[in-house]
Amino acid sequence: MEELNIKRDNITILGEMDYIMNERAIIHCYVGEIVGVEKDNIRFNKEVQEIFTVPLQYFMDNRPTYYSSTVRLEHPDDFPFELIPNGRDYKFRIGVHSVPFYHLETYRLWGFTANLTDRFVSILEQNENKTAE
């Protein structure tokens, strides 16, 4: 609402979809619909560069590409290595972080937004399969 400068009355919340949790935050995602206002009439604030739309069917037909990044711990100079087995030689795990990208014609949808979009499509497909049974 805040970033798009639209009234609460112009948003229909359909429900909470899922959440993403990392070391810094928990992000709750809600599915909603903007009603009673046209996209071209939305006067967004300075936090938003541009508004664009993509038909839902595009996401149903095109899954994102996931790219992997290696995640390693970096320890500050005062980290107490002397308190752990093998000290500086301790074998900390190296993680893998998958980052999804939708390669749209003009835009790139990636990161949390792409992750939650892909999750939304998965939920729709699961519900579609249950309905078909």
TrEMBL record:
Coiled coil: none
Gene3D superfamilies given in the database record: Nucleoside Triphosphate Pyrophosphohydrolase
GO MF entry, a single one: coenzyme A diphosphatase activity
Lineage: unclassified sequences, metagenomes, ecological metagenomes
Protein known as: Nudix hydrolase NudL
